[in-house]
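tokens incoming
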């Protein structure tokens, strides 16, 4: 499959991982938009949020649990952070493997901030 994040999951493309279990991996974004910029992804190839089904409910909950844990571990839980999921063209999605951006480590601007 020609998916860059599937290649990161299988290890054929290197990444700076900060979290991994049987269902999820999280790694540093190659072009960070903030001092902390982590991508949290399911190992299951789901192209976009539009492709998530009720079958993925537990997996989605686990992605958010991983985000909370990583924010704590990286020391930004209390100072604050932002979780973003871009969907399709107008959302600015570039990689079509579902991912949550975890951004923090500085005061973020835009989107009401
Ligand atoms: P999107 O715009 O699809 O929500 O975000 C895709 C993100 O993936 C971008 O922030 C981009 O910098 C990141 N990215 C793209 N290719 C790679 C890669 O090979 N390695 C890592 N670590 N991040 C990547
Ligand atoms: Zn994929």
């Amino acid at each position: 499959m020609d998916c860059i994040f599937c290649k990161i999951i299988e290890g054929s493309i290197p990444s700076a991982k900060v979290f991994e279990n049987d269902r999820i991996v999280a790694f540093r974004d190659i072009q960070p938009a903030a001092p902390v910029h982590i991508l949290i992804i399911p190992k299951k190839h789901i192209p976009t949020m539009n492709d998530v089904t009720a079958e993925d409910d537990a997996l989605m909950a686990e992605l958010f649990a991983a985000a909370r844990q990583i924010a704590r571990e990286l020391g930004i839980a209390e100072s604050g952070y932002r979780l973003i999921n871009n969907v399709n063209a107008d959302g600015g999605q570039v990689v079509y493997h579902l991912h949550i951006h975890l951004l923090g480590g500085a005061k973020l601007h835009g989107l009401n901030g």
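note: The two ends are 38 Å apart (CA to CA).
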